[in-house]
Amino acid sequence: MSENADRSNRPSSQITLRDRLTFPAFGDCPHERSVDIRYMEEDEDGFGSTLARHWCFLGEIVQSATVARLLLDVRDVAGRVVRAAFYDTDLGEPFAQRVKKGHTLALLYPQQHHFMDGSKGFRIEELREVTIIPCSLVSLLAASDMLQRLPSTCWADGCEKETELTACSGCHKAKYCGKEHQEIGWKAGHRRECKAFKSLEWYSQRDWTTFQSRFSFTSSA
Predict the structure, then answer these.
(1) What is the DSSP letter of 37?
(2) Fewer CB within 10 Å, N side or C side of the chain?
């Protein structure tokens, strides 16, 4: 791996899903066939553009249908519901069995598309740039917020112990002073948090501000 490619995969700082430049709502995504200087640089000849940074849309699935192709209605971080339509060679079939209401669609390098029926959304052509996260968007946002301020004490409610803590083997984020408190924490909600923390690992391991080559979900989709 080249030094430049390796640098692109290094997180510049702790990622947060609240960053609307990196994780934009639909209305903040660039439009097709336009050069958005937040994400792109215009070529010297003025006839094209190149990507300048990475970005990713997150939307919770509220409805799905297969009518010639896989169609998803997803709710973004601003509460707006938009259409995500699969125009890949398999028309979304590889994802059909993974789609579940309440889970979250993640789409790399999304651009606003106007469909012929007048609706707006995303036209998905590259399956390697889309994945389904088995968590709600609310859970992902909450987990992202927690990563900004991880407690130094045992995660069990009321426990203030700071030494001899063991990390959760699933997410490696939550820490407990013993098995009893770990079981209490699991039942109190870490079961949900753990899945969300693990889902965020891919995003936190990358530098979204420096573009060397396009990211891909291929290895984790």
Answers:
(1) T
(2) N
Compute the Cα dihedral for 135, 138, 143, 148 and give only its sign: positive
Q: What is the pTM of this model?
A: 0.86
Which of 118, 136, 154 finishes a domain?
136
What domain range includes position 152?
Answer: 140-200
Q: Which of 96, 29, 100, 22 is nearest to 60 (CA)?
A: 100
Number of structural domains (the chain) is 2
Lookup: tokens for 58? 């997150």
DSSP per residue, 160-213: ---SS-EE-TTTS--EESSHHHHHHHIIIIIHHHHHHHHHHHHHHTS-SS--SS
Same domain, 84 and 152: no
Instruction: Summarize pLDDT for 71-127 with one digit per residue, the tens.
Output: 999 999 999 999 999 999 899 998 998 999 999 999 999 999 999 888 899 999 999
Question: Has residue 14 been placed in a domain?
Answer: yes
